[in-house]
Amino acid sequence: MKFLDGLNSELKNVLLTQLRNLWTHTSTAIEGNTLTLAETAFVLEEGLTVSGKPLKDHEEVVGHAKAIDLIYQLVK
User: Fold this and answer.
1) Which end of the chain has fewer surrounding CB within 10 Å, N or C?
2) What DSSP letter does each residue of the chain carry, written as one string?
3) Predicted model pTM
4) Contact at 8 Å (CB) between 66 and 29?
5) Interacting residues of 65 by C-beta distance below 8 A, sequence separation 6+
6) Tens of pLDDT along the chain (76 residues)?
7) Angle, helix 37-46 to helix 9-30, in steps of 10 degrees
């Protein structure tokens, strides 16, 4: 991605992951998802669920993040 030119690959990956997590959290929260940003990042990075939260909330963030990952691939 052009705006990340000049950064090393590790930093690029970290920034893109943070952007994906924030984008996913914000978009799903607008629709009523109850996961916090930290919980969203946990679900996406660890692949686990958060106790006491609806399974649909987990499925929403995973699906949204997959769509963002697809966009990232298409942009590359």
Assistant:
1) C
2) -GGGTTS-HHHHHHHHHHHHHHHHHHHHHHTT----HHHHHHHHHH----TTS-HHHHHHHHHHHHHHHHHHHHH-
3) 0.87
4) no
5) 20, 21, 24, 44
6) 677 778 888 999 899 999 999 999 999 999 999 999 999 999 999 999 999 999 999 999 999 999 999 999 998 7
7) 120
